[in-house]
Amino acid sequence: MRRCTQLQRAGLAAAGAAFLLAGMATEMRAARQPEPSQPTEIEVKNLTPAELRRAEAMAHYATGVSLELREGPTAALTEYLQAFQIDPHNTSLGQRLAQYYMSRKEFTNAVSVLESAAKAEPQSADPLFSLGFVYRAMEQNPKAVTALRQALTINPKHLNSLQMLLELYGQDGNIAELKKLLAQAWKQGSNEWQYWVKLGDVQSLVFRQKPTLSSELNPAQIREAYEKALALAPDEPEVLLRLADIYTESKDNTKVIEIYSKLLKLRPDLLQLREGLAKAYLRADDKKRAVAAFEEIIKKDPLRYDVYNSLGSLYEDLEKDDDAISSYQQSLVANPNQLPPSLRIALLQAKRLHYEDAEQTLTAARDKFPTNYQIPYLLGLIYSDQKKFDKAINTFSDVVTLAETAADDIKLDASFYFSYGAACERAGDIDKAAELFKKCIKLDPKKHNAYNYLGYMWADKGIHLDEARELIEKALKLSPDNPAYLDSLGWLLYKLDHAAEALPHLRKAVELMQKEKDKELREDATLFDHLAEVLLKNGQRDEAIEYWKRALKAEPGNKEIAGKLEKLTGAATP
Fold this sequence. Notes:
Blueprint: H1 6-32, H2 41-45, H3 49-71, H4 73-86, H5 91-103, H6 107-120, H7 126-137, H8 141-154, H9 159-172, H10 175-188, H11 193-209, H12 220-232, H13 237-249, H14 253-266, H15 271-283, H16 287-300, H17 305-317, H18 321-334, H19 340-351, H20 355-368, H21 374-385, H22 389-405, H23 414-427, H24 430-443, H25 448-461, H26 465-478, H27 483-495, H28 499-513, H29 519-522, H30 525-537, H31 541-554, H32 559-569
């Protein structure tokens, strides 16, 4: 016999659950029934032959139940068989026997028992469904289809039979029959919400097992089935939960929020519902309500570190840095063995210029995670922000060592080498900086700030000017209206003694800079200084003085610019 495919096993498991539950229910009912007392001789004489057979069957059945409770199902088999042979109308017992034979892979015996039950009770769909299940397990799909179709002829609303038959049609690629069967199920209809839930479940299972059927069938019917169920049972959690999943898949966040809010009124104790609601608010970009939902979860389960992390991220988005730091710290209390909260805390502390606190946070994290490269990477960025470039360089060097010796294959990206190169340039190591910027460009040929930084660095030093021009022009090609890159090109032309050619680029750079939304970017002293130098070179002394004044206003402590002004005006700047 061929082994079942994964698709077949999934179908067998779903149908088998219904089959096994039927047998278990029979067994439980039997266990609760007391053993019948033996009839008296007078009572027996008054019974008809049919009643005598039934009484005998009941006696064998009761004996079987007693044996099964004491010694297990195998000990009871003979008594059960005798009971069923005498009274094959007991379809529940027939299914119980078939279940036993199936567990022992005695398929022929299972088929025999179920055929007898189906013949004895021709108006019952259950034995035929079970027979279809057995034939499917035997990989005799045509016989399984026949049995299941017979079951649906007797009871068109027998959804276990419908489900298995749909699976078989899907498995065999019989799309025409599959579509016809679904149409019949919809036409049949029902006033019971369970029917529509099961129909939606059946269609959902078919699509999961055969995604290609979405072009042949109508996936929207799954939602429609559940909505029909909801109309019949507006407060039924089983229906509401299914619809919540459907609305989530279709990104109908308004509906999802409505469903979870209703569920919470019915079951306010279920944290899973609050999580569903919080995630729905996130998808709807309603951060304040998402925060409120997550905070309710924390009240009921204060050790949910993942919820603290979600809250921290939300508070960051809402620019509530203190609350974000507090949430991440609570997350670390609940679960100290995680790194991301420490990194987030350090970034927030650095953002607020609390560099000492950020360094302490990262030092504590490095003690716990000594081989993690992200910690020294962030520490290097923080040192660079403080203009501690020698420390930054040493720390970035540690990152490279950790990445090279790590058990995992860690690939440092272009952004890392850009930051490392910038630190080296600021520390005066031009050759090392150039090497790192070239590596950055090799990793990401579209990283225009690396082209510009390397080109400007060489231009400012008056070296490799032809290559510097190529780099700056590449940066401008990738980002044409970038004021910093236009300034680099103008400054390079000035270094090449083309002051007249440089001037329009520098004017445009200042013009674009002053349109920036960020106030700090609108007042870059370097751009004013460069434009002033070129204006002076072109004989426009008064305008040059005005731009140096603006440069000094943007950067009051710049002694070099102050000296230029004093030299031109003859007056010391305040």
